């Protein structure tokens, strides 16, 4: 039997470091794209609005992902199911934000495909193991 709590905690630990790298690289590439590839954003008012939307999604993703990791670590270490449940619920907007960065930007670099795909894989595994952790925490204790 797989210890879902241990696997979930390991994934959260890995993601806490990867998220810092992901956030720094995504912010850097968005700044680089807005400076160097500014022509695509400056063509019309719509493209400038999309640039602001890209920054907004990125900031919202940073906040949601940080809260998700904090709640997941807190719930996993204290073996409580409520913070982990909120962490699982925050996984959905986090995945949507990463999918937007993967497909919805005006310009998506090849390296961003790699970063976002790796982030989606980590989040999917965390979702699976967090769900297993919640199920094991919610079932009645067996005294056999």
Automatic annotation (TrEMBL):
Membrane topology: Multi-pass membrane protein
Record has Signal as a keyword: no
Compartments in which it is found: Membrane
Domain of life of the organism encoding this protein: Eukaryota
Listed transmembrane segments: 12-32, 53-71, 83-102, 114-135
GO aspect biological process, one term: non-motile cilium assembly
Transmembrane as UniProt keyword: yes
Gene Ontology cellular-component annotations: ciliary transition zone; membrane
UniProt keywords, alphabetically: Membrane, Transmembrane, Transmembrane helix
Name this protein carries in UniProt: Transmembrane protein 216
Species for this entry: Leptidea sinapis
